[in-house]
Write a structure and sequence with these properties.
Shape of chain A: globular
Structural class of chain A: alpha+beta
Radius of gyration of chain A: 23 Å
Number of strands of chain B: 7
CATH superfamily of the largest domain in chain A: FAD/NAD(P)-binding domain
Shape of chain B: elongated
CATH topology of the largest domain in chain A: FAD/NAD(P)-binding domain
Oligomer: heterotrimer
Chains: A alpha+beta (about 575), B alpha+beta (about 250), C mainly alpha (about 130)
Strand order of the largest sheet of chain B: 2-1-5-3-4
Number of helices of chain B: 9
Bound molecules: flavin-adenine dinucleotide, iron/sulfur cluster, FE2/S2 (inorganic) cluster
Number of domains of chain A: 3
Helix content of chain B: 25-40%
CATH topology of the largest domain in chain B: Fumarate Reductase Iron-sulfur Protein, Chain B, domain 2
CATH superfamily of the largest domain in chain B: Alpha-helical ferredoxin
CATH class of the largest domain in chain A: Alpha Beta
Largest sheet of chain B: 5 strands, mixed
Distance between the termini of chain B: 62 Å
CATH architecture of the largest domain in chain B: Orthogonal Bundle
């Protein structure tokens, strides 16, 4: 059997994936790259990022402060060498984006402008109005069209990593349009599949953020690092979970409780609205619990007030927020405060990868939100993620390009057998399955609600233990699902079932990792262990899949270079 | 409120079984005033009929995947509120003018090729090195093309364009708006390279200015404006003595 | 789906009925706008013919004496007005005029267009009436 064969295969068409693909062909124009994405690349969830991308560009700023802000923000769980390299690369990447046409907002002198952001001590968040992710994604995607070496497989769903002799040599993917199973082979594979927000009910993440890449790597034996570190953003719109960007606070918006009080003065008195996300989300949750939140049809909420900024500032810096307010809440943010509450937003954890995206599985690289290269630790600072996608997407691309120059092409025999096995597995588990009676939608909803309660802003041993049992029951029920859609053509129910399978897998890892970390650090806040415990837990959690229900957890020291852990107060 | 209900009619088409599409009716609870048409489809898929197929992701009007025809008008279903239709029923069909792949999913490969054909990237005679920093660009210069850079590729404009419906060769509203976005960017020097596609008989000159594309565009791109302006510019290039210079 | 993952999946292409322009008010008015060009063209042809007749010599021919032409002109006038109206409205969309480095609002451009149209009509009318005396 012959298979489509490439030098490098990128799974994911978001910011990290496209940046990686371009980096490969820039490193070596003779390489053939495949880009597999389950949605057209410009639909990737990067598109929804609003606030901006952090980079030290102003002369008043320095790499040291960006590094320190990031490390302190991470609650000292970031690997400091990685952070130090990142802050130096970020400005270069932001300029590269500018050369590719990204319409960055500008200063009067024509230079790229920056805005303040939570946890950053100075203005370093570059932005394109409040549609930064949209502009960056469309810019890299449209730029990628000029490289004929990049072959896109749009609307192809990767179901499995092909591993031969301890080497990753491609993926099995379903072409959604035809329903055909394909083995797409390559000498190296870069995972850039984004986040897993859909594991939760209330999330800013889109329908496609289901942790696929993390589950794919995990099933191929690669560890998942720091999966207990789930970020909750303070300001999501009730009901939809649509994000109100941190830039709203960056530009001077106030958070107030039902008494009209800027309650953050009790939690982050020096930073107020510009405090880091984990702390503000906890502050809001505490206020709710103490009865100082507003009560609405969709739960408790606070007010985010920008009325004092005036229409001109709002229209030039936050036009999309005004649009979202009008469309989805029916308010005009120029005249009304915005209702907000904490919402799942970002996954700090991910596929265990190093500073160049290298994973422990030869030939496999990871970048973007699905990876954990050690940058974000316990809490990512807003606007570091888009820059991370660029910096580490490019790094992984270059590293993979280098690797394939000496790697041999995968053999087609074992690949053929693997494709047959995977096709048979999916047909048996889903397409040809008879007699199931569980609805995917029902299991998914129960998982999401259970995760919101059990692995939310605050956690306890009891809550997490209960959650592991709930997830176990849901997994049993998943074995009895019913697929009503018998067509092979654009079978979105099949995709939803496989995504749920992936989500149940990563939800488990989140829960067990959280249960084992008996301290409070960054976004992981244990009611039963409210203090940070550097003696025991200044370490990364790395989870490996076992045949048992629970993963095997290993711990790895955090790399400290110049910044000794201190108490984290703002 | 608790037992308000709404009828949703959705196109069903499975090429493996059906000759042509048909409508299927679902009666579902309209439990929350904030519900959009997409929520209704999701309710159907989760609780009534798992086989209904459609695209969506961000549910915040920015990814561009959820465009469908709602009661005759092309809409982003994540931003089309049920309360604006109730108590009438809502009929959801695939976007017009595109081949139907399955249920509410259309084939948009044609646009993907057209997008590439207009060279939607910065073209320069001489690249400046990264070390030299950014190109200087003022907010006013961004203002020149800002509107045309807001396109989310949702295809509503193509669905609204009878010219495209009658002749699929037409380059179409969004592609031309994006070409103009790059042509007007102070960093770009590629207008001339894009000209053959734009001034092609299937390019701007095919447009007879129905203007419906700009009416349905959810992002205020105003592709009709982009096309008419390009017609004027292209004519000027041709008529004026030095019109064809960069 | 990429070019190389070509498949034989069948798609359904809904036919576009001849009555598409009745589906929407907007489409209908577009058809009306396009249609108004027809009487306009006919009127111009007739005018050419009348001019040519007038050119045959000083036999005292005066176009308004042709009743048929006057009636036809009266019918064409609303079409001409509607056509000019839609055309001038477009100007706001098409023209990009800058004043002191600030782009002019399209409303201003359209208003100027209509103003110019009015003034031009008055001037032309005055000249014609002046000659007619
Ligand atoms: C609402 C919102 C606002 C944000 N704002 C900011 C901000 O202001 N600043 C900032 O720095 N960060 C922000 N973030 C975070 C940041 O946007 C994301 O972390 C980042 O965009 C992730 O990019 P990515 O390339 O890793 O993944 P994505 O853009 O999510 O792309 C994932 C890709 O993988 C593909 N894929 C996934 N699974 C499969 C599969 N099984 N088979 C094939 N393909 C697959 C998808 O099709 C997609 O193309 C925000 C996030 C959200 C949700
Ligand atoms: S121009 Fe408007 S309607 Fe057309 S694809 Fe772009 S955003 Fe959609
Ligand atoms: S779901 Fe993304 S635009 Fe509607």
């Amino acid at each position: 059997m012959d298979f489509e064969s490439y030098d490098v295969l990128v799974v994911g068409g978001g910011l990290a994936g496209i940046r990686a693909a371009i980096a490969v062909v820039e490193a070596n124009p003779r390489l053939k790259v495949a880009m597999v994405s389950k949605v057209y690349p410009m639909r990737s969830h990067t598109v929804s990022a609003e606030g901006g991308a952090a980079a030290v560009l102003r002369p008043e700023d320095s790499y040291e402060t960006h590094a320190f802000d990031t490390i302190k923000g991470s609650d000292y769980l970031a690997d400091q060498d990685v952070v130090e390299a990142f802050v130096r690369e970020a400005p270069i990447e932001v300029i590269q984006m500018e050369h590719w046409g990204c319409p960055w907002s500008r200063e009067p002198d024509g230079k790229i402008s920056a805005r303040p952001f939570g946890g950053m001590t100075t203005w370093r968040t570059c932005f394109a109005a409040d549609k930064t992710g949209f502009h960056m994604l469309h810019t890299v995607f449209q730029t990628s069209l000029k490289f004929d070496q990049i072959h896109r497989h749009d609307e192809a769903f990767a179901t499995k990593l092909l591993v031969e002799d301890g080497r990753c040599v491609g993926v099995v993917a379903i072409d959604m349009r035809s329903g055909k199973f394909d083995a797409i082979t390559a000498k190296a594979v870069i995972l850039a599949t984004g986040g897993l927000g859909r594991v939760y009910a209330f999330t800013t993440n889109g329908n496609i953020c289901t942790g696929d890449g993390m589950a794919l790597a995990y099933r191929a034996g690669v560890g998942l690092k720091d999966m207990e570190m789930v970020q909750f953003h303070p300001t999501g719109l009730p009901f939809t979970g649509i994000l109100i960007t941190e830039a709203v606070r960056g530009e001077g918006g106030y958070l107030t409780n039902k008494d009209g009080e800027r309650f953050l003065k009790r939690y982050v008195p020096n930073k107020m609205e510009l405090g880091p996300r984990d702390i503000i989300s906890r502050a809001m949750t505490t206020e709710f619990e103490e009865g100082r939140g507003f009560e609405g049809a969709h739960g408790k909420y606070m007010h985010l007030d920008v009325r004092h900024l005036g229409e001109a500032v709002i229209d030039s810096k936050l036009p999309f927020m005004r649009e979202l307010g009008r469309e989805f809440v029916g308010i005009d943010i120029v005249h009304d405060p915005i209702p907000v509450r904490p919402v799942q937003h970002y996954m700090m954890g991910g596929v265990d990868a190093d500073i160049s995206g290298v994973t422990p599985l030869a030939g496999l690289y990871a970048a973007g939100e699905c990876a954990n290269v050690g940058l974000n630790g316990g809490n990512r600072l807003g606007s570091n993620s888009l820059s991370e996608c660029l910096v580490f997407g490019a790094a992984a691309g270059r590293q993979a390009a280098d690797y394939v120059s000496s790697a041999r092409a995968p053999g087609s025999n074992p690949v053929g057998a693997m494709l047959k096995d995977e096709t048979a597995r999916i047909e048996a588990a889903y397409l040809d399955k008879k007699g199931g009676d569980e609805r995917i939608g029902a299991i998914r909803e129960e998982m999401q609600l259970a995760m919101d309660v059990g692995a939310g802003v605050f956690r306890t041993r009891e809550g997490l233990e209960k959650l592991t049992k709930q997830l176990g029951t849901l997994r049993d029920r998943f074995e009895k699902i019913k697929i009503e859609d018998s067509s092979r053509t654009f079978n979105t129910e099949l995709m939803a079932a496989m995504e749920l399978d992936f989500m149940l897998e990563v939800a488990d890892v989140i829960t067990y990792s959280a249960l084992a970390r008996e301290e409070s650090r960054g976004a992981h806040s244990r009611r039963d262990y409210p203090e940070r415990d550097d003696a025991k837990y200044l370490k990364h959690t790395v989870a490996f899949r076992t045949d048992d229900i629970s993963p095997r957890l290993e711990y790895r020291d955090v790399r400290i270079t110049n910044f000794k852990p201190q108490a984290r107060t703002y | 409120m608790a037992d308000k209900r709404i009828t949703i009619r959705a196109t069903r088409f499975d090429p493996e079984k059906d000759k042509s599409p048909r409508l299927q009716s679902y009666d579902i609870p309209f439990s929350d005033d904030s519900m959009v048409v997409l929520d209704a489809l999701n309710y159907i898929k989760s609780h009534v009929d798992g086989s209904l197929s459609y695209r969506w992701s961000c549910r915040m009007g920015i990814c561009g995947s959820c465009g469908m025809t709602v009661n005759g008008t092309p809409k982003l279903t994540c931003s089309a509120f049920l309360r604006d239709y109730w108590p009438r029923s809502v009929t959801v069909t695939p976007l017009n003018n595109f081949p139907i792949v399955r249920d509410l999913v259309v084939d948009m490969e044609d646009f993907m090729h057209k997008l590439k054909s207009i060279k939607p990237w910065i073209i320069r005679k001489q690249e400046i090195p990264l070390g030299a920093g950014e190109h200087r660009q003022t907010m006013d210069q961004i203002g020149e093309f800002r509107q045309f850079s807001q396109c989310i590729n949702c295809m509503l404009c193509y669905a609204a364009c009878p010219v495209y419906g009658l002749d699929n060769e037409f380059l179409g509203p969004a592609a031309i708006a994006l070409a103009r976005r790059y042509n007007l960017d102070s960093r770009d020097q590629g207008t001339k390279e894009r000209l053959p596609m734009i001034a092609h008989p299937d390019g701007i000159w095919e447009c007879s200015f129905v203007g419906e594309c700009s009416v349905v565009c959810p992002k205020g791109v105003d592709p009709a404006k982009a096309i008419q302006q390009t017609k004027l510019d292209t004519t000027m290039r041709f008529v004026l003595p030095y019109g064809n210079r960069e | 789906m990429s070019a190389e993952a070509e498949t034989a999946t069948r798609t359904y292409r809904p036919p576009m009925g001849a009555g598409w322009w009745t589906r929407k008010g907007h489409y209908f008015w577009y058809m009306v706008r396009e249609f108004t060009a027809l009487p306009l063209a006919l009127w111009l042809l007739w005018l050419l013919y009348e001019i040519q007749r007038a050119g045959r010599g000083p036999s005292g021919y005066y176009p308004p004496n042709s009743t048929a032409f006057v009636i036809f002109s009266a019918i064409c006038l609303p079409f001409a007005l509607y056509h000019s109206f839609t055309f001038l409205k477009l100007a706001g969309v098409i023209l990009r005029v800058k004043l002191l480095d600030k782009p002019l609002a399209s409303g201003v451009i359209v208003a100027t267009m209509f103003g110019t149209w009015l003034v031009a009509s008055v001037v032309v009318g005055a000249v014609l009436i002046g000659f007619g005396r």
